[in-house]
Amino acid sequence: MMMQAVSPPDPTPDAAALGAEAVLEVSNLTVEFPTRRGVLTAIDNVSMQIAPGEILGVVGESGAGKSITGLAVLGLLEAPGRIAGGEIHVAGRRIDMLSEDELTKVRGREMGAIFQDPLTALNPLFTIGVQLVETIRLHSGLSKEAARDRALTLLREVGIPAPRERLSQYPHQFSGGMRQRVVIALALAAEPALIIADEPTTALDVSIQAQITALLRRLCKDHRTGVMLVTHDMGVIAETADRVAVMYSGRMVETGRVKDVIHDAQHPYTKGLMAAIPSLHERVETLTQIDGAMPRLNARPEGCAFNPRCPMAGPRCRRENPVLAPAGRNQAACFLHDGGTE
Amino acid sequence: MTAQSPILTVSNASKEFDVSAPWLNRVLERKPKLFVKAVDDVSFTVPRGSCFSIVGESGCGKSTVARLVTGLYATTAGDIRFSAGSGGEPVRVQMIFQDPHSSLNPRWRVGDIIAEPIREMKLRASEAETRERVEELLSTVGLAADDARNYPHEFSGGQRQRISIARALASEPELLVCDEPTSALDVSVQAQILNLMRRLQQELGLTYLFISHDLSVVRHMSDTIAVMYLGRIVEMGPAESLFNAPQHPYSRLLLGTIPDIHAPHRDRALQSGEPPSPLDPPLGCAFHPRCALANERCGRDLPELLSVGAATVRCHAVEEGRAQETSVSEAV
């Protein structure tokens, strides 16, 4: 999976420890949106790694910055959004400094993308076959016939029945679930090291959602592809991901193995979030609720962004911004696990 | 009027939509008129003070049922009856919609949005009393009296849904039809709204007709659940029995595939297939092309709703006892 390009020396010790093994390495990423009323920090000092064949779930509520993280890695931030700090390495190569032309080559070859709405990801004017063959040839230089064979193999792999006939059909002739399978085939076309999947199942019904998450998981394990799975749905994370990063107001508040974060959350926000999900197994009189709402980017409080909603908040939480520190089996950005809240 | 009497009785309601091509195209291309049967022969009763939920995937007709009940659509066939309200006058019905961003007028102040039904129905004698009632409603749903002066865009999604609820309560309804009331909200806010709705139900004795695709939300809210598939109710019964012992293969599929954070089933065998197009529904049982238990009879005859224990189920396999032989995990 290593790129032939030379990777620049790593300045952060964190990154060096993980070595060139990680398919994605984000260190201290900060994304800003300059507006007329000042600069909004959408992503504040976020770091993450994804190993080959690993699925990292990035979960958070709307506005938490999870999608922006995915877009920043893909280099698809819309102006005026910009990466204001930190580094992004994909398959050992630093990509946040690349020009648009160079980035276009990395995108697709090294990184695939799957978005929420499969209809907008496909061109309605071309058949699935044309789109697949074009993508494959762009990244591999195969002949037309070889690319067609590869397209057939891909469609078979993502579970599309009668792939030979399907190649000559247009996106509107596919159902939502089948379209998302085609998008996954497109994302896999160049055998990328990393796939960014942003809410890949949100537009689908539950029974189809289960098929797609299972497919994504199988393909990622088979191809040793790293996946960043961005979603608001903790259920999807529980079913699919290996590790999870919980985001709140542009910061990562907790990260750890999926099982540990779900059953033994350490950050008060994560705890509240897990308890707020109605259970399928028992009915309770009242659900645990987190009062209030996530602050807007221009009204993020001093200190920990969660402090106004936090039942455990102390004076230090209103003063200082906590950083990720070991907490139980996870890492949490909370003073309860890092020297107390006083 | 006993507490158990139904507030709403829907009998054999059907709704067809005309989705034909324009007249000239039909004439030139010699195409017949085309109808979609969005709701097909649906019957249920909602006891006063309970929460009746309809679940199903997109296109199953659950929202159409909500709109039939509120009179936003007229039925093609069948009957929808309300019992007399508590004061003898007709039952008041209100609706809460999914998207609080589009269901509130952005040009109106919140106070006016909530006061509109009160003024329109002349529920209060004077303007001062109306304002007082608006403040009371705002505090009922957990907002401040000052919020009446603001516009909807100044509120978050959860607060906007509270405003929708306050507006629905303004006309003092007995039956609230809630169409995916929390689907546009984040989980932590969803919990706030669900808790509020449960509290209001207890305090005001409301009856809910609750429409959702989210089974965990439905389990939290409901007394009785109906599962719809392609316009028909395939299983209906008390929430507990439906979740603990689902009968219909489709109910089992739904329960088996819903992501569960406490017991993820990553390595299950997956049922393939997708819902068929409602334009061209399969003969017999609409679920038979996806059903592991289907036989030749399922592809030919439409099963009837039969009582099985506390539930009613529309399935030949359940009727013939074939469903019991397969465990849930095999069927899903």
From TrEMBL, chain B:
<comment type="similarity">
    <text>Belongs to the ABC transporter superfamily.</text>
</comment>
<dbReference type="Pfam" id="PF00005">
    <property type="entry name" value="ABC_tran"/>
</dbReference>
<dbReference type="InterPro" id="IPR003593">
    <property type="entry name" value="AAA+_ATPase"/>
</dbReference>
<dbReference type="InterPro" id="IPR050319">
    <property type="entry name" value="ABC_transp_ATP-bind"/>
</dbReference>
<dbReference type="InterPro" id="IPR027417">
    <property type="entry name" value="P-loop_NTPase"/>
</dbReference>
<keyword id="KW-0813">Transport</keyword>
<feature type="domain" description="ABC transporter">
    <location>
        <begin position="8"/>
        <end position="255"/>
    </location>
</feature>
<keyword id="KW-0547">Nucleotide-binding</keyword>
<protein>
    <submittedName>
        <fullName>ATP-binding cassette domain-containing protein</fullName>
    </submittedName>
</protein>
<keyword id="KW-0067">ATP-binding</keyword>
<dbReference type="InterPro" id="IPR013563">
    <property type="entry name" value="Oligopep_ABC_C"/>
</dbReference>
<dbReference type="InterPro" id="IPR003439">
    <property type="entry name" value="ABC_transporter-like_ATP-bd"/>
</dbReference>
<dbReference type="Pfam" id="PF08352">
    <property type="entry name" value="oligo_HPY"/>
</dbReference>
<dbReference type="GO" id="GO:0005524">
    <property type="term" value="F:ATP binding"/>
</dbReference>
<dbReference type="InterPro" id="IPR017871">
    <property type="entry name" value="ABC_transporter-like_CS"/>
</dbReference>
